[in-house]
What we know:
By secondary structure, this protein is of the alpha/beta class. It has helices spanning 20-30, 42-45, 50-61, 92-95, 106-109, 158-168, 175-191, 208-217, 219-223, 240-247, 269-278, 293-306; strands at 8-13, 68-72, 87-91, 122-127, 130-132, 149-153, 198-199, 204-207, 252-255, 261-265, 282-286. The chain is built from 12 helices and 11 strands.
Amino acid sequence: MTKNIPDIDFVYLWVDGSDPVWRAKKDVHIGVDKTQSLVNCEGRYADNDELKYSLRSLEKYAPWIRTIHIVTDNQVPKWLDTSNPKIHIVDHSEILPQESLPCFNSALIEHFLWKIPGLSEHFLYGNDDMFLNKPATPASFFDANGLPIIRLNRRRFRKLSLLYKEKIKKQKLSYYIQSIKLAANMVEKRHGAYFGGQPHHNIDAYLKSDYQHTHETFKHEIGATLRNNVRKSGDVQRCIYSYAPLAKKRGRARYVNRKESFKISIHLDIHFTKFKKYTPLFFCMNDTELANNSHREHAKAFLEKRFPKKSQFEK
């Protein structure tokens, strides 16, 4: 059992993209775009009750979580029991700089998680489409010294691979890969260590003090993106808050495979079959521009079957 960790909190980002007030605000800043673009894809903002099922997974497999902080843009899930003492709703305006509001860019919001009022020193972070699939303990996320276990997907020769794609094959890297590359390069320039491992796209562990220190260390670079209220080139992926502690020996890298951390792309039936084969500790229900409402209905039915018991966090 991990020692000397009195409290561990969990942080979510959540949005209800069907809310007409929120959509009107978004359309003012993004425009009414019917295409499934990076910025405006329906799956980025769709609420398919994933948070409800993720909370059920936490209650079932990690009941030791102290407080659950749900970061939103003046929204609250209709089914959520906000009177539950473990639930803390955090509005964007409580943590984001004024120039970043309103914000529709999760990559920007994630730079300010350390500012959540009352957040514990040891905390976990996940999107609402991330779930536990088996019992977990604090030792699943923090080592015996209380340092975060940083889960990555191994990418051998990462720097050379990206260089080959860009310079030789003349391929444009995706927004996501660009943001990870930028974070890795920033850490290498500052701390002299390059990490090619890619985030496992699931629940991650952090120390608030190290998160804050990393933010302050790269404050100038992050400050250049404060007005990116939608996703834009130059955004820095939150893996910087894992790479920097690793460079300073303030975290322990753990390279995972699908048997530990699995991402289900909800438009691919084969992923649901593979999930049953791997039975991972973590899984993510990834909704993308390739998914439609039929895929979302199937995903919701899958989650209902997986987590049928109503949690204490529901009305």
